[in-house]
Each structure stands twice: as structure tokens, then as C-alpha cells.
UniProtKB/TrEMBL annotation:
Listed InterPro entries: DMFA2_C (IPR046540)
Organism (species): Mesorhizobium australicum (strain HAMBI 3006 / LMG 24608 / WSM2073)
Pfam entry (one): DMFA2_C
Record domain N,N-dimethylformamidase beta subunit-like C-terminal: where: 263-656
UniProt name for this protein: N,N-dimethylformamidase beta subunit-like C-terminal domain-containing protein
Source superkingdom: Bacteria
Length: 686
């Protein structure tokens, strides 16, 4: 269902295609605006002040205007496809209704519409004959059959619920006529009502030439689905990105792996707030100069009341520095347009990006659909209204994600620390080849989400002698998958209480069919790679770190050159300190290597900081209370590389700005200077 963009919170919104690119390549800006656009130019954001680049941005001829969002997924067999069939005599499908209020449409074709009004069936010619006493049951599989018989239309609906069986037989005296329109499931042919919240499976047409059927694959398709049955192949479209690889009527709990029992996962889940990649026309284009340095950039779109910046990334196409910064675009995309509903969260500050998301019913991968199922897939081809250099997270009133990472990159520029840049999507595509020429990979403040391919490449890199400077917290945790402009994330019930949690039976990713959830559930992830994982989360005051005796051993003492205080990190732009928001700690039980050194620890966190729900402590409550800490670690690898873990999302925010220096800055500068040097060979004695 189309709706114009609500620009009440932000006069301009948009996205770029591609989102990240290399020097010498084109990039297009797709924009919606409620105000006349005054000018568009490119600025670089990772320098001390936003730096105008002077690059020529060309209009495409598609004038900027207020664009539309199209919400709600459904299924369609186009009229041109139906014309291929020989005399359609009936249709059958399976449907699992979830939560639907108001007017909805279950099925429409020709003169027949099956509708719902607050759950009650409305059926008949054009859906105008109410069956006021019939409520279709939700949360159970229904088999729907419609057939033409002796000049009448027959409707049969049966449920699979053994305890509360449902059966409906209806006969309409008017014949079912297909006419010349589309056949749709989950919306009206005019797409003028909210689409249906429901799972669909096993759609078939009965024709004079035989049965034409569609089975939904467990792997996300790249286009329409071809039918089976007769020689004439018809195509069914899945519109607006419903979720694939969902449990169907055949699922019996015998397996949670769709690769073993694909027939148990041959359903799609449609939602009234699904949104696929947008198709706004490009209004501006840029040919990125061949000499453009890698970094974080934005199109700055000016209008008569101000401006907005639409972020993109220019990556390194050749090695120019020994250090490589890994931009956590998977995390950025997962958080983009987060709803943060007021009935669940107390906002500490306002942010126009979140208001824009709420006004336009956008969803992040932290949000849930209107039927309470989790949002599991999204596209880069959408506005990312919360991805801004001036963004502040309403739950803590502080910068979060991109602006914190920009604070770190500016620190590097100010201290002559050279770096190249790669996005994690690049790493997913390139694997180890994207890292091989570098001494060390540096992360941002919150590299939470990774594909299996990304994590494996980092593991290979470290095993071959490379180093990893993990300058954040709660990283290398959640598993994602990519396909074209899409990213998918299925959350595990283990994550209950932190965000939506899906049923374990629907945890598999439709892009790969791998199990979703935590990487560590697949034997990889945080503990086995870095040695630490999230231990606490909170939005009150951050804490400083204090050195441990182990930090004075020769293999670690170099990190603290110039640091005169035992305790450091008592200031910062994220919650006022170096250890805060989400912090990590070791756990040998979960995989921390015995050669991991804890070189600093932060304690004294407020009671509002909650423990990670996935951790179990042998000593019970007493041990858990003793482990209310963040632990900075250092591990020297047999390959000659090392892994440093700041173990806090707030660490990069505690770096000094401009020409100033503090102990967090000294430790970070010592680390990066050391990593930029030639590889040192085997691990030193401790």
C-alpha cells in the first residue's frame, strides 16, 4: 500500500546506489524532499571538520520531489501469466493468519474476493457478502479451496487444529469469473488496503490441462517463482520482500534444519509493513575521482530551511597504509531506522531520524512487525535516517555507531596514523584476499554483526600473522547473510529480553539456510576469536579502566608508554567514560584462550547495567556479581600477530579531540603505531 513520505521530522531523506564504492567509479543519489533543493555537494566526514570536496555532482534530469513508500508484502500471479493457463477451474492454498485488525484481503481474483474485517470473513462476489458469524482462526494452518461447480462458486476452508477444528463450506450462486485481472493473495488487486499478516504455502491452480502448482523454496529467490505441473510454466511474484524459509503446515518439530527437510519450511511470511528495495529515481550522480582518498563521505543536500547529509563510503582499491579500518556497515544497517517505541523505552534525548522512522513506519532489524514477528531482512536501498554524523541515540543521549567511529578516524588523522578502509560487505565478498597485504585490521566501536565469511576471513588473517585491534564492545556476535542489496538477520531465543526473539524453528537464514542467531552457536564468534564477549549493558554513566598487574609484563607494558595513571578513561562523548553502554569480559568456560592477558579492568557499574542473559556462572549469583566488569585484553598469537580488545563500545568515544591528548589516546596511539610496524615474529615471552 503506497503512502507519500512524511517529511515532518526530516525535510530530506534518501540513499545512494551503491552504498560504498571505490575511487574512479560512479555513485547515484536517490532522494525525497518536501522542500525545494538549493544545492547538492559532497563533504568528507572523517576529517576534523566536514571538508567540502569540490567534486562535480550532476543532476540526472529526475527532479527531486516527495516520493512514496510501498508497505506490505503479498503474492501475485499477473493477468498475463493467467492467460497462459487453459480454463482455470479452481485454486487452493494454505494460509496461517497472524494478527490482523480492520479490513484485509485474503484472496482476490476476478469477481471473487475473500476478505477479513477484524478477523471475520467477508466473502462472495466482490467481497460484499458478510459472513458475520464466521471468524477465521488465527495461528493455525488453514487449507483454502475455491472451485467452480455447475455455475456456482464453492469455498471450503479446513483447519489443522485437532483441539479446535474448523470447517467452512460456502456455495455462491454466481459463477467465479477470472475476467482480465491479476490473482493476488494477501491484498486487493488495487493494493488499496493494508496487506494481510499471514504465512502462505503450497498454492495451486486446477485447470483443464491439469494442476499448476508453486512451492516456496527455502532459499531466497532472486525473481518470480516458476510453476510445476503442466507444460505451460506460469510465474508467481512475491511482492515487497516477504520472509522465506518459514515453517509450513508440514513442519512437525523433527528437524530445525531446512536443508534436511525443505518441505517443512516451504512457507513465506507476509507482513503489512514489509518493504523491499526502493525504486526511487536517481536525482543526482557523481563520478568519484580516481584520486579520491578512502574515507567516509556524504551528499549534503541543502534546502531553504537547512540541510541533510546522506552517507556513503569510498573504499581502498590498493594498499597505501599498513593498517586497514573495517567499517561495520552490517551493524549500521541493522540499527538504521530503529523504532524505539515509547511504551518500551524511555528516551533520554530526541533524534529526528527516529522520529522520521516512526512517522513513516520504517523498521530496523531490532524491530518487530505489526503481528509481533521480528523484522529479519532489509535493503541498503532505503533511507537510513539514523545514520548521520550528528546522530544521538535516544536511549543514552550520546553519539552511537557512525559518529563514534568518525571520532576515532578523526583521532587517527590528527595523530598521523595512516589507514586504508574496507567495508565489512567488501570483506564478505573478498574474504582473506581483502586483508592479506595489511599488518592489522582495526574495528570501530561496535562491530556486532558478521557473516560466516567475514569471521572466517578475520580468523585466517590472524592465523597467518595479522593483528586485530578490536576497539569496541559487543562485537563479532550476531550472524548475518548478504544477497545483492539485502542483509538478513534471524535472532535466536537465546537473545530474549534484549530485542525480539524468533522461534528456534525459524532461526535459519533464508539467504544461506545456515542457522542464524549467535556466531558462537556455530562454534565460532567472539570468545574463540577475540577472547571476550558482552558481559554488561547499560545507559547510565560509563566507568574508567584500571590497570592490572599483568599489564606490567614486558609483552604488554609498551601499550602504556606515557600513561602515568593507574586509572584512565574517566571522560568521553559516550556516557562520560571509556567503559560503557555495552562492555565485554573474558570467560574460559565459553572459550577464552588461556594465553589471553587481562591488562585493565573496569568495575563499579551502576545497578542499571544488566548482565548478558546468555552467560552462566558456576558460582551462581555471587560469582555473577563479582563479574560485573569490563576486561581489556591482549593476546599474542603463535603466528606473530596479536589481538587487542578494548572491550567497550564507549572506548573510541573516550579518545581526545583535536590536538588534545589523554591516556586513552596514548594507549590507542601506542597500539596502532606498534601494529603499523613490520610483523615481529613469534609471540614474546610473558
Amino acid at each position: 500500500m503506497k503512502r507519500p513520505v512524511d517529511h515532518g521530522a526530516m525535510a530530506v531523506s534518501g540513499y545512494t546506489v551503491p552504498w560504498h564504492t571505490a575511487a574512479g567509479t560512479p555513485i547515484a543519489l536517490h532522494v525525497s524532499s518536501s522542500r525545494p533543493v538549493r544545492d547538492v555537494h559532497v563533504v568528507r566526514l572523517d576529517t576534523q571538520a566536514a571538508e567540502p570536496m569540490g567534486w562535480r555532482v550532476e543532476p540526472t534530469g529526475n527532479a527531486v520531489s516527495r516520493r512514496d513508500f510501498d508497505h506490505g508484502s503479498f503474492l501475485r500471479v499477473a493477468a498475463a501469466e493467467l492467460a497462459k493457463a487453459t480454463e482455470i477451474e479452481g485454486v487452493a492454498f494454505e494460509v496461517y493468519l497472524t494478527r490482523n485488525d480492520g479490513a484485509r484481503v485474503l484472496f482476490e481474483s476476478g469477481n471473487l474476493r475473500l476478505g477479513l474485517q477484524d478477523g471475520r470473513l467477508i466473502s462472495g462476489e466482490d467481497g460484499n457478502s458478510p459472513d458475520s458469524d464466521v471468524v477465521l482462526p488465527a495461528n493455525t494452518w488453514l487449507k483454502v479451496e475455491i472451485s467452480s461447480n455447475d455455475g456456482a462458486t464453492v469455498l471450503r476452508i479446513d483447519s489443522d487444529d485437532l483441539l479446535s477444528p474448523f470447517r467452512l463450506d460456502r456455495r455462491f450462486d454466481l459463477p467465479w469469473r477470472l475476467l482480465t485481472g491479476d490473482m493476488v493473495f494477501g491484498t486487493s488487486t488495487a493494493n488499496d488496503v493494508r496487506s494481510l499478516n499471514a504465512k502462505f504455502s503450497t498454492i495451486s491452480l486446477q485447470t483443464a490441462a491439469g494442476r499448476i502448482a508453486w512451492t516456496f523454496p527455502t532459499l531466497l529467490p532472486r525473481g518470480p517463482l516458476a510453476s510445476t505441473g503442466t507444460d505451460r510454466v506460469l510465474f508467481l511474484e512475491t511482492v515487497n520482500q516477504p520472509a522465506f524459509c518459514m515453517t509450513s503446515r508440514r513442519w512437525d518439530g523433527s528437524s530445525f534444519d531446512p536443508r534436511l527437510v525443505p518441505s517443512h519450511y516451504d512457507a513465506v511470511h507476509c507482513h503489512d509493513d514489509d518493504m523491499e528495495a526502493l525504486q526511487w529515481p536517481a536525482s543526482y550522480q557523481l563520478q568519484v575521482p580516481a584520486e579520491a582518498p578512502a574515507g567516509v563521505y556524504a551528499f549534503e543536500v541543502g534546502h531553504d530551511e537547512g540541510s541533510e547529509r546522506i552517507v556513503f563510503f569510498i573504499t581502498s582499491s590498493e594498499r597505501r597504509a599498513p593498517l586497514l579500518f573495517l567499517v561495520p556497515t552490517a551493524t549500521y544497517l541493522a540499527y538504521a531506522d530503529e523504532f524505539l517505541p515509547a511504551h518500551l523505552y524511555e528516551w533520554m534525548c530526541e533524534d529526528r531520524g527516529h522520529r522520521f522512522a516512526i512517522d513513516n513506519n520504517l523498521k530496523s532489524l531490532y524491530d518487530y512487525h505489526s503481528d509481533l514477528s521480528g523484522v529479519s531482512i532489509c535493503s541498503t536501498r532505503k533511507p537510513k535516517a539514523t545514520l548521520r554524523d550528528d546522530y544521538k541515540y535516544p536511549l543514552c543521549g550520546c553519539p552511537h555507531n557512525l559518529p563514534v567511529d568518525l571520532h576515532f578516524l578523526r583521532f587517527c588523522h590528527n595523530n598521523d596514523i595512516a589507514f586504508d578502509l574496507i567495508t565489512d560487505r567488501d570483506l564478505h565478498e573478498l574474504g582473506l584476499a581483502g586483508l592479506q597485504e595489511y599488518q592489522a585490521v582495526i574495528t570501530g566501536s561496535h562491530p556486532e554483526y558478521m557473516s560466516v565469511e567475514m569471521e572466517h576471513a578475520l580468523r585466517q588473517f590472524a592465523a597467518a600473522g595479522g593483528s586485530i585491534a578490536y576497539l569496541g564492545g559487543n562485537g563479532f556476535a550476531g550472524k548475518v547473510a548478504f544477497q545483492d542489496d539485502l542483509m538478513e538477520l534471524r535472532r535466536s531465543p537465546l537473545e530474549a529480553g534484549r530485542t525480539w526473539d524468533g522461534p528456534i524453528a525459524e532461526q535459519s537464514l533464508s539467504i544461506t539456510n545456515q542457522s542464524g542467531g549467535y556466531l558462537r552457536a556455530s562454534g565460532r564468534g567472539e570468545f574463540s576469536l577475540t577472547g571476550v564477549a558482552i558481559s554488561l549493558m547499560g545507559f547510565d554513566g560509563a566507568r574508567p579502566f584500571t590497570r592490572t598487574p599483568e599489564s606490567r609484563q614486558p609483552s604488554a607494558a609498551w601499550l602504556f608508554d606515557g600513561v602515568t595513571s593507574e586509572t584512565f578513561g574517566d571522560e568521553g562523548i559516550v556516557l562520560g567514560g571509556a567503559a560503557g553502554y555495552e562492555v565485554d569480559a573474558t570467560d574460559p568456560h565459553l572459550g577464552t584462550s588461556p594465553d589471553t592477558m587481562v591488562i585493565a579492568r573496569a568495575t563499579g557499574f551502576p545497578d542499571s547495567f544488566v548482565h548478558d542473559a546468555t552467560r552462566w556462572y558456576e558460582g551462581g549469583d555471587r560469582e555473577r556479581d563479582e563479574r560485573r566488569c569490563a576486561e581489556m585484553t591482549l593476546r599474542h598469537l603463535p603466528s606473530g600477530g596479536l589481538i587487542f580488545c578494548a572491550s567497550s563500545v564507549a572506548w573510541c568515544g573516550a579518545l581526545p579531540a583535536g590536538d588534545a591528548m589523554n591516556d586513552v589516546g596514548r594507549i590507542t596511539r601506542n597500539l596502532l603505531t606498534h601494529l603499523a610496524q613490520e610483523k615481529s615474529g613469534p609471540a614474546p615471552d610473558r
